[in-house]
Amino acid sequence: MRNTWKGMMLGALSGALVGLVLDSLDRAAQGAGNAVHAAPDAAAWAGRGAKDRATGFAHRAMRKVADRDGETIG
């Protein structure tokens, strides 16, 4: 009888471990699916930020050149 109880306990523990791994994989797959759907919005947001920084940099450079040459830029 002792070996039967040991087998049942070992089976329960290994079954719980397999269930935990399967649940973790399922959650990871759902998270990846959410990330795939959010990626275009994140890319658009990052692109807008890069464009704004580049435009600001170019405008500051133009002002510096104009100030150096004594011109006025609006």
Short summary of the structure?
The chain has 74 residues and is mainly alpha-helical. It has one helix and no strands.
Tell me what the structure shows.
The protein is 92% helix and 0% strand. The chain contains one helix and no strands. The protein has one helix at residues 2-69. The mean pLDDT is 81.
Order of helices and strands: H
| Average predicted confidence as pLDDT | 81
- Separation, N- and C-terminal Cα atoms: 92 Å
- List segments where confidence is low: pLDDT < 50 over at least 5 consecutive residues: none
Give the beta-strand count.
0
Structural class: mainly alpha
Figure out the total of helices. Answer: 1
Largest sheet: none
Proportion of helical residues: over 70%
Instruction: From the alpha carbons, calculate the radius of gyration and give it in angstroms.
Output: 30 Å
Choose one word for the global shape: rod-shaped
Strand proportion: under 5%
